[in-house]
Amino acid sequence: MRAISSVVERFLHTEEAAGSIPASPIRFYSKVKGVVMAVAEKRIFRIEIDERLCKGCSLCVDFCPTNVLTMDGNLVVVKELDACNGCQLCDNRCPDFAIQVFEE
Prior knowledge:
- The structure is a single chain.
- The chain has helices spanning 2-12, 15-18, 59-63, 89-93; strands spanning 26-32, 35-40, 45-49, 69-72, 75-78, 99-103.
- By secondary structure, it is an alpha+beta fold.
């Protein structure tokens, strides 16, 4: 198994693979039908919304690629936290700094 892990580790650090593989730590290796796969652990995120700062512009909702956020009247709310991939587009696009994404 050590030889397999060194090959996978080398592949993950090549320049060709740098843009095509998400930056998740490898948790374990799985062998299915003779194929060895590196399985990344699920990353967990926390989203904090400061209701005092949110003006309800919905930019964060529009930019979220996984539809984690939705509008509830004039405030943004988290609809599906498990779908969050941690891209922080909502955090970066908020003009009022009302939303923050943290990795747990």
